[in-house]
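A favour, since you know our structure tokens better than I do. Go ahead and set the record down below.
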Amino acid sequence: MRMRKGIEMSGKVGRGLAAALCVLGVGGASIPAFAGAQGPAGAEMTLVFASGKTRSVAGSVAVPVRCLGEGDRFCSGQVTLSRNGHHTSIPFSVRGGGEEVLFVPLRLAGGKGHPRKVHGVATTVQPLGPATRTQEFLYAG
């Protein structure tokens, strides 16, 4: 944790504030440009849901995902889907810039023809710093 003129520099807010102060020339030499930010070797990787739709396939939910990040690295972590009090988590590893379909074992009971809402959470581990987390409601038709 860094202190600069009484401002706490921790977490995403601290990194953003430090970057803004450096751009404005307020940070001085004691706060590196983009303090706590990750350079090319540690750039942030984040898994996102590629569309708000899923489909049920043989007792699993097919979830299209995309890795936002550099192509020579991977988004790795865990996807959790939940519906009606039931939840299932699976690990993932998707190449940077790539799209894949993950199959999560979760039965979607209910009538066909009516969209079923599933809550999806993707937690992506970062080489430096805390994991990123993406949440979205997905609809299975």
